[in-house]
Design brief:
The structure is a homodimer. Chain A is built from eleven helices and twelve strands. Chain A is α/β, with parallel strands linked by helices. The termini of chain A are far apart. At the A-B interface, helix 4, helix 5, strand 2, helix 9 and helix 10 of A face helix 4, helix 5, strand 2, helix 9 and helix 10 of B. The first copy, chain A, binds a DNA duplex through helix 2 and helix 4.
Chain lengths: 336, 336
DNA sequence: AGTGGACTATACAACGTTGCAGTACTTACG
DNA sequence: CGTAAGTACTGCAACGTTGTATAGTCCACT
C-alpha cells in the first residue's frame, strides 16, 4: 500500500493538514516544520493520490486529444506538439483515436469521459455543425477546418485560401489541365469541400474551366487512395498536366503510380500536396506542399483551453475562431 | 454540478447503494426497481465518477503506453494497435512520449504517475538492464528488444534472427559488399546492437568478411540519418552493392540519396529495411523489409498486463519473455 | 410449525485529499 | 496594557463511490 498524507504526518509528528499544506506550498509553515515534513516525504516516497485530489477539486489535470488516427503522420505530429504544449502547463494528455467513426466522436462529445478530463481538444471528421454542441460544460477546442460559428473555440488555417495557393502555384507554372484528388461527397467532409472550393477559385482566377472529370474522389486520405485515383486519372481519357492532392499521403500515393508507370514528375505531371509531412521531404522527387504552422496550432489550442479552464465558468465568452498561417513549399515535384 | 448516485437515488426513491447495484449489474435487484432506477439514470444523464471509483477500488482503468516518439510510423502503428487491444478490455490508454530521454524514462519507471495508472507498457530507448526495475508494484510490460532476463515481462521479435534473415536475403541475391546503416555505440542501444549482430552472423554464414567501413553509424533512426549515411557510403571509396538498414525510415532516407544521385535500385545497390511501415509499400521503388507481427505484439503486451493485474499480487510469477514472429517481405528494392 | 436459504434492499464506513473554521500563540500599535 | 492583526498549526466535514454487515420478506423443504 503506498503511503498517504496520514503516514507522512505520523512520521513527521504533525497533522495531516500540515503535510497537505507543505505539499501544496502553503506559505504559513515554519521552515523547520517544512523541512521535517519534506524529509518524511522523501523517506516514505510519498506521491499525492490523484484520484483523491480530483474527487475533492473536480480537476484531473488531464485533457483529452481526439484525432481520427495516429497512423496519419500529420495527426501524429500534431499530437506530439500538443503533448509538449500541455506539459508546459503540467497537464497530461489522453489521446483518443476516433477512426473517424461518428459513433466514437459522439461518445466523446456527449462526455462519456466527462469526469476524467478537464477539457477536450478535438479534430472531428464525421461530425459537423450543431452535432458538436457539448452537453455538459467541459471546455472544448476544435482543431482543423470547421465552418462558420460552431459551438466551440476553434483553431485552423484558412483552408480554402491554402488550397487556392497550392493550385495557384500550379497555374503559375503554366499548367492548364489541373486535376484534384481527394474530393468527398459527405456533407461532414468539410476539409475536402473547402480544399475543393479553393482549387476551383484558383482555376477560375487563371481563366480555366473546371472539368468534372479532373475532380477525383477518394474514400480516405491515404496513400492507397491517392495511388488508385491517379491510376484512374491516367486511364480515363486525356491525362492532366498537374495534380493538387488534398493531403500529402494522397500525393505520395499518386507519385507512386506516376513513377511506376514511367510518367515524369514534374516533367509530364506536376504534383503538389498538403500538410508538409516528413515523408514528403524525402520522397523521390521531393513533394511540393502547403505547410500549416502546426506548432502554432498546437500552442493555440492548449492556450485556448487554458483560458476556458482558468475561470470557473467555462461558459464565459462566445466561441472564438483563430486563424493560423500556412506556407507554400515548392519542391521537386513541381520543378523547384 | 453533474448528478451523482445520490441524485439518482432520490429521484428513483431508493437507497444510494441500490443505484450502485444497478449500475454495477448486481443480480439481486427486482426488475421493477431496476427499471425505475434506469429511468432515473437516463433522465438525469448520470455518469459514474471515475475519480471516486478509483479512490475506492485503487484501479483507474487506465494503462500507460510509453514510446520514444509518435512521429515514428512504427510506434504510431503499435500505439494504435495497443489502444484497440486495450479497448476490448475497456481500458483507456495514456500515451507518453519519452523522446528517448533517460530522465523522462526514469520518471516513468520510478512511478511518478503511480496512482493514476494500473499498468505500464514501455518501449525503452535510453534505459536498459537493471535501471528498469520498478520500485513500486505497478505491473510493467517491456516492448521491443531487451536483453536477457530483465526485471519485467517482455514481448519482442527475435531481433538478431530477423536481422540475419534480412541480410541473408541480400547474400542470397549474390551481393558481396553489403553495408549496414544504423550502427550505434551507446550501450543502451540494444536494438542497434542486436541488428548488427544478426547482420554479422549472416555475413559470416555466406563466407563474407565484415568490413568496418561498411558499418555506418546513425545518430537517430530517421530518414535524414539514413540519407546522410548513404551519402557518406557513396563518397568514401568503393560503394556497396547492397544495404541493410536497421529500420525503414533509414532505408527510405538512403533510397532518397541513391535515387537523387542516379544510382539504380536494386540494379546497382539493393536496399532492405526493417519494420514494414506503410511508407515503404508506396515508395519508389517499394521497399523490401522485415515485418514484425505488430498486431500480435500489441495483443500479447495487453494480455500480459491483464494477467498481472488479474490477481491482486503483481509479484506473482517471474518475468516472462515472449517471442513474436517476423516475416521477410521482398519488394522492388531488392528486385522482387 | 420450524428452519434454512434465496432474494431485495438498506445503513455505515472507508478510500486520500482539501476547504473551512477554529485554537493558540506572537507581534504591533495606539 | 489591551486589542487587533498576523503566524503556525489542527480538526472536521465532504467529494462520490463501493464492500461489509444487516434486516426484513418470501418460499421450500423438513
Amino acid at each position: 500500500m503506498p503511503p498517504g498524507l496520514k503516514d507522512v504526518a505520523a512520521r513527521a509528528g504533525v497533522s495531516i493538514k500540515t503535510v497537505s499544506n507543505v505539499v501544496n506550498g502553503y506559505v504559513h509553515v515554519a521552515p523547520t516544520t517544512r523541512a521535517r515534513v519534506q524529509a518524511a516525504i522523501e523517506a516514505l516516497g510519498y506521491v499525492p493520490n490523484m484520484a483523491a485530489r480530483q474527487l475533492r477539486s473536480g480537476r484531473s489535470g488531464v485533457i483529452a486529444l481526439a484525432v481520427p488516427e495516429l497512423q496519419s503522420p500529420y495527426f501524429a505530429e500534431i499530437a506530439g506538439l500538443i503533448v509538449q504544449a500541455a506539459e508546459r502547463r503540467s497537464w497530461t494528455v489522453l489521446i483518443d483515436q476516433t477512426d473517424g467513426l461518428a459513433e466514437r466522436e459522439r461518445d466523446l462529445v456527449e462526455g462519456l469521459r466527462r469526469h476524467a478530463i478537464d477539457g477536450l481538444i478535438f479534430s472531428p471528421l464525421a461530425l459537423a455543425g450543431e452535432e458538436l454542441a457539448l452537453r455538459d460544460g467541459t471546455p472544448m477546442v476544435l482543431l482543423g477546418e470547421r465552418v462558420w460559428h460552431g459551438p466551440a473555440d476553434h483553431v485552423a488555417i484558412d483552408n480554402t485560401a491554402a488550397a487556392a495557393d497550392a493550385t495557384r502555384h500550379l497555374t503559375a507554372l503554366g499548367r492548364r489541365r489541373i486535376a484534384a484528388i481527394g474530393v468527398q461527397d459527405k456533407p461532414s467532409a468539410v476539409t475536402a469541400h473547402q480544399r475543393l472550393a479553393g482549387y476551383r477559385t484558383a482555376l477560375a482566377e487563371a481563366g480555366l474551366t473546371p472539368d468534372p472529370a479532373l475532380e477525383m474522389p477518394a474514400e480516405g486520405f491515404h496513400r492507397a487512395d491517392g495511388a488508385a485515383a491517379m491510376a484512374r486519372l491516367l486511364d480515363e481519357g486525356a491525362p492532366p498536366d498537374a495534380v493538387f492532392c488534398f493531403n500529402d499521403l494522397l500525393a505520395l500515393g499518386a507519385l507512386r503510380t506516376l513513377l511506376s508507370r514511367g510518367v515524369s514528375v514534374p516533367g509530364d505531371i506536376a504534383v503538389i500536396g498538403f500538410d508538409d509531412i516528413e515523408d514528403g521531404r524525402f520522397s523521390t522527387p521531393t513533394l511540393s506542399t502547403v505547410a500549416p504552422d502546426a506548432p502554432r496550432i498546437a500552442q493555440l489550442a492548449v492556450d485556448l483551453l487554458a483560458e476556458r479552464l482558468g475561470d470557473g465558468s467555462a461558459a464565459t465568452g462566445s466561441p472564438r475562431e483563430l486563424r493560423v498561417d500556412h506556407r507554400l513549399l515548392p519542391r521537386e515535384s513541381t520543378g523547384a
